[in-house]
């Protein structure tokens, strides 16, 4: 997939360039449905069967491998 010239620097800077190279992503529709069903927008919390789960900013940085500067 060819990225627009104006978008390329942003995609590269956020380390999402590999995502733009993916040709096909297989989605698990049942998993997505369950996650949406158990997410509470008001508290930004996921409620799986065993309790509740809240992601911190640091956890999201680690999971998504986002480069944070500053």
Topology of this structure?
Blueprint: H1 8-13, H2 17-20, H3 29-38, E1 39-40, E2 45-46, H4 57-64
Antiparallel strand pairs: 1-2
Number of helices: 4
Could you estimate the helical fraction of the residues in percent? 40-55%
Count the strands?
A: 2
Quick check: average pLDDT? 77
- Cα-atom Rg, whole angstroms? 16 Å
User: Major sheet, described briefly?
Assistant: 2 strands, antiparallel
**Proportion of residues in β-strands:** 5-15%
What topology, given as strand order, has the largest sheet? 1-2
As residue ranges, the low-confidence spans are none
> Span from first to last CA?
31 Å
Order of helices and strands: HHHEEH
Taken from the alpha-carbon principal axes, the silhouette is extended
Overall structural class, as computed from helix and strand content, comes to mainly alpha
Summarize the structure.
The protein has about 70 residues and is mainly α. The chain has helices spanning about 10-15, 15-20, 30-40, 55-65; strands at about 40, 45.
Overall description:
The protein has 70 residues and is mainly α. The chain has a domain at 25-70. It is built from four helices and two strands; from the N terminus they run αααββα. The chain has helices at 8-13, 17-20, 29-38, 57-64, and strands at residues 39-40, 45-46. It has a two-stranded antiparallel ribbon. The chain is extended. The two termini are 31 Å apart. 0% of the residues are buried.
What are the salient characteristics of this protein?
single chain, 70 residues, mainly alpha, two-stranded antiparallel ribbon, 4 helices, 6% strand
